[in-house]
Amino acid sequence: MFIYNAWYVAAFAADIEPGKTLGRRYLNKAVVLFRTEDGEIAALEDRCSHRAMPLSAGHVEGNILRCCYHGVEFDGRGTCTRIPNQARIPASANVRLYPVVEKDHLIWIWMGEPALADPSVIVDSP
């Protein structure tokens, strides 16, 4: 049994390099972390909605994470932005977003209900 509605240290900020993915498991759930070209940290379910390929095996280009299997693209919010050779993108193509905060050189992740994630309760770790 896990406590989901709490902040957990996910990684050191230096572990998430621009243009790279970092696949990890938190509370027995696969998560991919990446940094967009804007410097924002994103944490998504590490599973492409098309063929369940781990997104951590994909490629980061700018603000987009591209699955290495069929090239399905996701933004940092988990929204599917492009499916090759398909004009319509169904809502079911989106993947789960996990709230993350970069604070004091640490990346904090919230694995529970996103609406309950309050960054002000994260302890200082100078």
Largest sheet: 4 strands, antiparallel
Q: Helicity level, as a percent range?
A: under 10%
What percent strand? 35-45%
- The total of helices stands at 0
The separation of the N and C termini measures 31 Å
Mean pLDDT: 95
Q: How large is the radius of gyration?
A: 14 Å
- Secondary structure category: mainly beta
One letter per element, helices H and strands E, the order comes to EEEEEEEEEE
Strand order of the largest sheet: 5-6-7-8
**Runs with pLDDT <50, length 5+?**
none
General form = globular
Number of strands: 10
Keywords:
globular; 126 residues; 36% strand; three-stranded antiparallel beta sheet; mainly beta
Description of the structure:
The mean pLDDT is 95. The chain is built from no helices and ten strands. β6 and β7 form a beta hairpin. With 126 residues, it is mainly beta.
Task: List the SSEs and their pairings.
Elements (H helix, E strand, L loop, with lengths): L6 E6 L8 E6 L2 E7 L5 E5 L13 E3 L2 E3 L6 E3 L4 E3 L17 E4 L2 E5 L16
Quick rundown:
0% of the residues lie in helices and 36% in strands. By secondary structure, the protein is an all-beta fold.
